[in-house]
Amino acid sequence: MPGRSFGPLANRDCPMCGSGRKRTILPDQYYQLADLDRMSVVECEDCSLLFTDPIPTPAWLDAFLNPEVNAPWREPVWTSLEWQKEHSTEKFADGLKIIRKLMPQGTLLDVGTGPGLFVRMAEEAGYDSLGLDVLPEGIKRAVELGIPVLADDPGNNTLEGKFDIVTLWCVVAHEPNFTDLVKPWPRFL
Ligand SMILES: [Zn+2]
To answer: Ligand 1 mean position to 91 CA, how many Å?
Structure first.
């Protein structure tokens, strides 16, 4: 889909400490399905947080999430376990190695799970796992495949329970308000 944009992006300071001092780690990556919209991964020179910059504006996200504007995002690209396997298996396996060192067993909540590949891999690795996603399409497919997932947003305060581990693959990096995003987490941990 060459030459595609979903709208304006916005530069930002460090979402953790507010510093404007940052250095580029990974330049000029394009957003999936929007090859005119490019971000970099940068590192805060004061607190070392890695984050993406620029990030989507609300108008960009509205277009990106709107199935009338962006049908391919919903079906089948990001609702397909096969697609997720092709693009994320290696990354997820690396993540599980890190989690294994930090916590060899326990319960795991994967937020923004899409079709649930990471939940499946975590289950296979012995973690009692649950996936959440705000979008129903991926969840529907995951349920059909027997992957334990729910269509929910942690900000809704509907989910009960405690987890040893919370993962957010490809969520934090694109979130404009980092502190709002992490507010629900103490309830789960
Ligand atoms: Zn910082």
So the answer is: 25
